[in-house]
Description:
Layout: E1 28-29, H1 31-40, E2 49-52, H2 56-61, E3 68-69, H3 79-86, E4 93-96, H4 101-112, E5 118-121, H5 124-131
Parallel strand pairs: 1-5, 2-3, 2-4, 4-5
Amino acid sequence: MSNPAPSIPAPLDSRGLPANYPFKAEWEVTPRQTRDALAASAHGDALPLLIDCRLPEEHAAAHIQGALLAPMQSIMQLQDEIAEAAGSKDRPIIVHCHHGRRSLQVTATLRGLGYTNVKSMAGGIDLWSIDIDAGVRRY
């Protein structure tokens, strides 16, 4: 049996979030904020490290260009690779998954490891596809 087609999203608010989304500003950034942070690096701001914490097969199906694949189940084993990619525990890091649940867990784990500027992308790659880049396949 195949997966059902992704549902049609509810209208988005002025931040690009579905109505009534329980956004946690201390833990999350919106896809629009993520897009802007990635674009701001072209103007000299620190480029955030984008971490995709989904499984390899999910990443292969749809991904954001330049994201470091670090599956949630392997975060502790990938500490050296993440540290090398980040370069500093103060570098901005944005973690994303499919809808935002796993990335919140990985955000908490990375903060526990001493990273000081880590947030989860609200709504995950699904909301990214809806609001930022329709060329990224929804699944």
